Amino acid sequence: MLIFLYWSGCMDKIISKKDYNIHFYEVNYDKKADITSIMSYLGDLATYQSEELGVGIDYLMRNKMAWVVYKWNVHMDKYPEYNDTITVTTIPYSIRKFYAYRKFEIFNKGEKIGEATSLWFLINTERRRPCRVPEDIYRAYGLRVEDDQQLEFEKLLLPSEISSEKSFDVRYSDIDTNKHVNNVKYVSWALENIPLDVVKNCSVSSIRVIYEKETSYGETITVQTQMKEIEDKYIFDHVIKNSEGEKLTLIKTEFLKA
Questions:
Q1: Which of 33, 52, 126, 239 gives a 20 to 30 Å CA spacing to 200?
Q2: What share of the chain is helix, strand, coil (3-state, %, to 5)?
Q3: What is the mean pLDDT of the chain?
């Protein structure tokens, strides 16, 4: 559904919303939606809006372009449970020549339970380099060149001490329509490197991601994680590297203690 609404000072910008039923295969042992399921909804809604506005996958492929997410900042106050139906809304917040900011809000039974911000680069798929956002996309999203406000993202640091380490092989099922690893898979890899007692007894309150380099099918990646305990939460700093030791992704996860 496409609507025109007021959002945090933004008048007459196009906002999309979509309902998502929480399926059994999207929940954890506690029957609550996984953070990776939530992030998949966000990516799906961004694509849905672009499709509805005529600048979706086919448009991008014809013009040899693709949106590649660079940064995520996701915060959750509560998690929906199995068979809940949540509503996710999104707004294309601004565009700055080669990249764009997008905001999301998540509601369950009318209560806001989470929000997210993201930063996306538009790339030329042949050269794999950033390209300038065309006027067609500005018009489709209801944005002007003057709509170039930035959103703040925390600077993420490399782990200074490694608490745990795991390696994974990139599977064919990890690849998306841009022919590289789906961005949520990196988060799944990082979460696999967190102690089981934290995963079972705490909930993810926030997750921040910076994607720096792509990886591909057949590659072996390694997740290195540093764990810190601060009052009522655990903080994990993750770095994901390829087999040559190159840094692919930085991730920071925070878990609230039960």
A1: 239
A2: 20, 45, 35
A3: 93
